Amino acid sequence: MTIPRFARIKEFIVGQIEQGFLLPGDQVPSENQLLEQFGVSRMTARRALQELSDEQILVRAQGLGTFVADARPMSSLLEIKNIADEIRARGHNYHCDLILLDAVTASAQQAMDLSLAEGSTVFRSVLLHCENGLPLQYEDRLVNPVLAPDYLHQDFLLQTPNAYLSEVAPLTEADHIVEAVCVEESIALALEIDSSQPCLKVSRRTCSKRGVVSFASLFYPGNRYRLGGHLNF
């Protein structure tokens, strides 16, 4: 069976990306270059580039050319997403490892984060969320026990803390702080990265009508994740 010419062009470009000859942000050959290289019509070259753009492998910029898309998943800063749903929506496999689930005595900073008195007992969970077996998010979360008294009795291998807290203490507002950081050795080890590699850290404070529900520190390897959004004015 003869492979259509446009499909051959697509295979060539995808092969260049998979072998590392074309990296995210690199410009791919233009329609003119492809029609000369493969001896095809402009329509055939255009179809190959358009289909790869539709498949989000390439991105086309009017007047500039066609470039390799950034394959890192991107999450919106404008909404709070359940990491498990986010991964499954991409058609990928999700699982998590539970590192810690316990009651702890709040330090001055932790108490301030939850709007509680210093020395209060709070719940703490630490989980590692993975996409297709690769660590994507290290979640270190403090929870107000008054608003989620059964938190320590949940199976977070089956339901994420985000999903559970959204049920028992529906969120009404949240604050985000995003920064680039180098993480301590234990977090780098869990994320399977070198401790010198930069990470995205999202500090998220969530509230319900009754008060502050949780304060989460979320760490993502910078080369595996992006944050972004779109605003209409």
Give a brief description.
By secondary structure, the protein is α+β, with helices and mostly antiparallel strands. The protein is built from seven helices and ten strands.
List its salient traits.
10 strands; six-stranded antiparallel β-sheet; 2 domains; alpha+beta; Chorismate lyase; 233 residues; 33% strand; Arc Repressor Mutant, subunit A
Topology of this structure?
Elements: H1 5-18, H2 31-38, H3 42-54, E1 58-61, E2 65-68, E3 74-76, H4 83-89, E4 94-105, H5 108-114, E5 121-131, E6 134-143, H6 161-168, E7 173-181, H7 185-191, E8 199-208, E9 211-221, E10 226-228
Give your account of this protein's structure:
By secondary structure, the chain is of the alpha+beta class. It has two domains: 5-68, Winged helix-like DNA-binding domain superfamily/Winged helix DNA-binding domain (Arc Repressor Mutant, subunit A, Orthogonal Bundle), CATH 1.10.10; 74-228, Chorismate lyase (3-Layer(aba) Sandwich), CATH 3.40.1410.10. Helix content is 27%, strand content 33%. The strands form three sheets. It has a six-stranded antiparallel beta sheet with strand order 4-5-6-9-8-7. Strands 1-2 form a two-stranded antiparallel sheet. It has a two-stranded parallel sheet with strand order 3-10. Helix 2 (31-38) packs across helix 3 (42-54).
